[in-house]
Amino acid sequence: MALHAITRANESAPRKNLRHRIEHASVLNNELIRQMKEAGVVASVQPHFIISDVWLEQRLGAQRASHAYPFHTLVQSGLILVGGSDCPVEPITPLSGIEAAVNRAGNEAVTVEEAISFYTRNAAYASSEENMKGTITPGKLADLVIVDKDPRRVPASRLSEIQILLTIVGGKFAYEAKS
Fold first, then answer.
1. Which of 44, 49, 96, 129 lies 20 to 30 angstroms, CA to CA, from 69?
2. Which fold has domain 2-133?
């Protein structure tokens, strides 16, 4: 229904740079993914649900559940994915979501770099703030974290164990680990 409404809005009042987003873009078949791409929709996903949605097949049935959390397919289709936690339902920590997306069973896992982009560059794009944040680039806000390990070198099953040492928001220190 949301995709239908976005498509109709795009047709009846076309505008440049609208970034419609579908929250909880979780159960998507190839046709829905194609339509989302055509409509320029941003897919907001909550990767940690992979871990907590133990009831998925029971509630949706095997056929529909097989279409759940198609992260790799979404990335390959060229859709912009934004990662979120749905806190307080799930842990607010992006590293937990990154770990879940990277360890996605089957052929729907994404790379560490792709999962990190869900929470950084893509999130800035979705809110039309890519010229202000989302990447570490001169002239942009200094919103970043310093971590104790390189996520590209940590075993995929241990990404959520990476420690945040420092958080900087808008160039100001917002958090510093005690050690």
1. 129
2. TIM Barrel (3.20.20)
